[in-house]
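User: Can you predict the 3D structure of Protein serine phosphatase with GAF(S) sensor(S)? Sequence below.
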Amino acid sequence: MTETEVEKLKLMVVDDEPDNLDLLYRTFWRTFKVYKANDAHEALAILDQVGEMAVIISDQRMPEMNGTELFSRTVERFPDTIRILLTGFTDVEDLVDAINSGQVFKYITKPWKPDQLKALVEQGKDTYRLVKKRTKELRHALRRESLFNAVTTTIRESLDYNSILQKIVVTIGQTFTATSCVLRLVEGDRLTPNQFFYHDPKFSDITLPFDSNPLIEEVLYTQKYQLTQDTHHDNSSHSLVVPFTYQQHLLAVMTLYKWGSENIWQDEDIQMITGVAEQAALALSQAKLYQSLQEKQQQIRVELQVARQIQNNLLRQTLPEIDGVKIQACCYPAREVGGDFFEVFVHPKGDLWLAVGDVSGKGVPAALFMASAISLLRRELSQESPAEPNIVMQNLNYALADDLMSNNYFITLVIATYNKVTKELVYANAGHIYPLLWSHQATLVTQPYYLKERSIPLGILPKWHANPGRFTLAPGDTLLLASDGITEAKVSKKPHLHKDNNGICQQTHSSMLNQEGLWQLIQEEPQPLSLENLLNRIQTDNHVQEDDQTILSLEVL
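Assistant: Sure. Here are the predicted structure tokens for Protein serine phosphatase with GAF(S) sensor(S):
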């Protein structure tokens, strides 16, 4: 039997004529729980005591307060009640008032026909039940939406994964008046030691003895909620175990306990709890993924810091001090690690070797090729009698070409050797920007000498070939090797004036530095030239460094 069949709906009849009142009572007592009122004041008193009626049938003409006024006083408190007005043919104005202010469902003129009235009341009963059903569904939907919003807000405001889990437990426990809640994570269909708790402070002295492990095992197996009651104690308790499942993956289980037999979870509550669990499972999955990504990013950051330190150690930390020359070098990767490198090597026989290289691309792949290149270069330079720079370049290409070509990378590189005795500089260039050479007597109108002997980068072809370039340096000459991260940096030009609607404004343009611009900056730098100060000036116009920047100079004293 359904609930509507077990419990009769309430109906009230209001009439100041006892015969009419008894007739109405006898008509409906079998199908309704009928209340009788002799006038409107008594009807209001019954409503205060009993509450909402499904149907109210009232006579219009009554002393002190008519039926229309009675109905108007019940509209706000009981908007769902079905109101039927009994009236005479002469009460047209009263009918208009009843319809406008009393929300009358129907009116019937006296004398009424019993079958007509029964049919009308039956229609009103069905309407009342439908309204109540829709109202209940709407209230359930609003409650569900409110709970979902609360859970969503809780998740959004949480700072980390554990905080999300704890707040979900508290939110669900408080919303569904649980005595306590326990949320346990699941990994590979097994419970993890991680647990999150909520306990109602009003029941701080109560320890729930119920063993939920069998229910949890059942949920792990079926991925469906389990509900049970423990009646072995003076006061019964209920346990509900709900799975948190996302895309058929069980992420967690929550056990809700309720002490006592009152306010037990209804089907509507259980459906809402399981619905919240589904929403929370989605959030947990995303939060777990986010936490995993954060942990991996942190691990990558730590590893990149170690890689940066290793790469810094590969470069010369202390430049050699050599009589008759001054050497400066700076290398700043755009990321934690980069593909630029330089080398300053003094051979035991006295020759000074210089190199600046640039691996295509940035980041870790470029850094790995950079490490290989600099290691191979040092091996070549450590020979008892190193070959000339172009032969060294050939050997590097032979060792690196296969790996570079298979990974679509290449290396631009300048290698130079300087003999302090003969003052001869011999160099080879594999696709790198031209080295600059100038004398300390150079002025703004004097252009530097570009060492333009050059061939293709390493890793383009299996065999590399080029003739070496030769030049004799004199005291006061400076050789500058740089990577394209220097010459392709953006620098601001001097502002120019222009007019707009608001008056005269200054507008600043930025453009690529290029080698000509680099030479101008060098001329503007105070002497003696400091490469570190020069790079600081270039980087001032570049809030974000887009490429590795390396620069090396050799000044003959």
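The chain has 14 helices and 24 strands. The mean pLDDT is 85.
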